[in-house]
């Protein structure tokens, strides 16, 4: 599977570590930038990963200082279910119950080891379907309704 990644300057260093970790784990990585510590605006990078994930039915990882701005921006893209997490239980549950397709991590919040553990936990967890499928469908309906306004 190809995993899309991106970061702003606040998450750049973590994104670099994540890219190396994913490649080492056997994933193909599509890196949408940024490519240095120069200040950039996170919504642009969240949109790139969000569009890729939604159209390719893939997974994405976004890093910024807190992970919060990236999650806010990514969730504006139709078809994206982005979750910012900083604990392993949430990382697991947001896949099992929310079928999240974008993981957002905060470089200024997490140590590298914890960030990679959260990533591995998220990737290893599987959507449970069933009653959660109904809720995911309702999220999509909500998205449609808001778009029509
Ligand atoms: C950039 O300074 C910082 O605001 C950004 O990386 C992120 O944390 C926003 O949510």
Automatic annotation (TrEMBL):
User: Is Isomerase tagged as a keyword?
Assistant: yes
Q: Keywords for this entry? A: Isomerase
MF terms (GO), sorted A to Z: ribose-5-phosphate isomerase activity
- Under which EC number(s) is this enzyme classified? 5.3.1.6
Query: Which residues are involved in binding D-ribulose 5-phosphate?
Result: 8-9, 65-69, 98, 108, 131, 135
Residues annotated as catalytic: 64, 97
Q: Which GO terms describe its biological process?
A: D-allose catabolic process; pentose-phosphate shunt, non-oxidative branch
Top enzyme class, one word, equals isomerase
Q: Which domain of life is it from?
A: Bacteria
Give the family this protein belongs to, as stated in its UniProt record. Answer: Belongs to the LacAB/RpiB family.
Protein's UniProt name:
Ribose 5-phosphate isomerase B
Provide the species name.
Listeria farberi
